[in-house]
Amino acid sequence: MASIAPLVSKAEFHGVRALVIGGSRGLGEVAAKLVAAGGAHVTITYKSGKADADAVAAEIQKWGGRCEAMAYDVRREAAPQLAALQQPPTHIYYFATPTIAQRKSGIWDSASI
User: Fold this and answer.
1) In a domain, 63, yes or no
2) pTM score, two decimals?
3) Closest CA to 18 of 86, 82, 88, 71
């Protein structure tokens, strides 16, 4: 937050309720910190990596921003997952990591040939 906060004015995202899908690491983490530094209320999501998401949210909160983390799976219907939000997001930033490969039982898994 210390390196990101000077890049944006404190009120640049005032009134924004940002949902950062995939905000627990990488570009999503940077986007979450940037909009939080600009005054947005941020909700970051994770599919796996709860500890990473909680750490990002804690860093934003320690800096004085508003952020929480929640589990979210982009492959499932959105409405039931987002029902826990107190208010709907005004902005959505999408940084979900795609599934690159299916895990196999071994290097030479004959079922995958």
Assistant:
1) yes
2) 0.85
3) 88
